[in-house]
């Protein structure tokens, strides 16, 4: 890889277009100094890894694999610790083991991790007790504290975003290739969990079956290397274009541009305007791209997005992440899927059952009902089944900690519990037990 230091090349076409949801930095010179520094830093990921993920997602798009994408709504700088990262990874590995074993499908594992620091906001300001301040836009932009000082966008936070992402990805790579993710460890991921939770006990039974299967294979003389480490990819929303562009490099082998801040990036519901800077930026990079599609998406928009982002119709290039809401998915998804399928494009269809199902509880906490999350996934499976298309995966907000942010689940969280461990920097996440519950239920849907 070589550094793309030439700021006059055509890649900069996005700079002439309107970019939604960008911070207004008070000091443009400071931003330039930061992006120059970022542009000189090493890549977080390599072009070859991005291509490999593209191949894996192609399998999803063609109906032969399932995508599990999950992690925090917003990562936070003060949560970059070994315990928190391990807990998230463990949850994703456990979910993946459940899906792989119970649904007998290869699972492509992608974290919302190592770069998920920037948040689009519905409102530019927030008012508390008559005081109005700029909204918190993620740790990469400003601070969550409700003070004037904290809410001023600070470009130096982009450097901290980079270093936090590096530290996180380094640990993730260590865990996933250094023996921790060895399938023979299926029990150890559950150790601190099994006694306290119904989901943990159900998982333990499944882990015993996996153990038996591994023992059987070993007795037969088979010891596949695939069992000893795991392929795990990093993804985040490509929201702050100054950051993403500073980390976009020309691959010296292919001469193509890659955003080396993460393997896969997605464009959010609020920034997917066809004539906007985000779609233009995404059209120039070769990473696998996701686009969130909310309830207002028309089939024409979906088809135009395909033309812009996947003109060569390469399976694995484009993932549509639908987030319609449990009460609307059955009405809105069929036409989109039908029209896209009829166009001949092969996209991966993934269900985000979180962002269409958020509401405010009487206590003032932003929350989601586990049953709504589940119902949206169910609707997603029903629609794809009826159309003969592939329900390609789920995109969820979760954490490995036992937080109380979403209500419901097997170890039920009640509205009155929400205050106990409500720790999210942005949207409410499934806790570990709710995440495992979801994995078991999705595996059942997949099989049936
Ligand atoms: C998110 O994924 O955290 C998010 C903001 O999603 P969306 O763009 O779908 O609203
Ligand atoms: Co969110």
TrEMBL record:
Protein EC: 2.5.1.54
Entry note: cofactor: Binds 1 divalent cation per subunit. The enzyme is active with manganese, cobalt or cadmium ions.
Key words, A-Z: Amino-acid biosynthesis, Aromatic amino acid biosynthesis, Cadmium, Cobalt, Manganese, Transferase
Cofactor: Mn(2+); Co(2+); Cd(2+)
Organism from which the protein derives: Streptomyces sedi
Domain of life (superkingdom): Bacteria
Matches recorded under InterPro entries: Aldolase_TIM (IPR013785), DAHP_synth_2 (IPR002480)
Annotated Mn(2+) binding sites: 73, 355, 397, 427
One Gene Ontology term of the molecular function aspect: 3-deoxy-7-phosphoheptulonate synthase activity
Catalysed reactions, semicolon-separated: D-erythrose 4-phosphate + phosphoenolpyruvate + H2O = 7-phospho-2-dehydro-3-deoxy-D-arabino-heptonate + phosphate
Pfam families xrefs: DAHP_synth_2
Residues involved in phosphoenolpyruvate binding: 112, 269-270, 292, 323
GO biological process, one term: aromatic amino acid family biosynthetic process
Keyword flag Transferase: yes
Record-stated family: Belongs to the class-II DAHP synthase family.
Region (Disordered): 117-150
Name recorded for this polypeptide: Phospho-2-dehydro-3-deoxyheptonate aldolase
Pathway entry: Metabolic intermediate biosynthesis; chorismate biosynthesis; chorismate from D-erythrose 4-phosphate and phosphoenolpyruvate: step 1/7
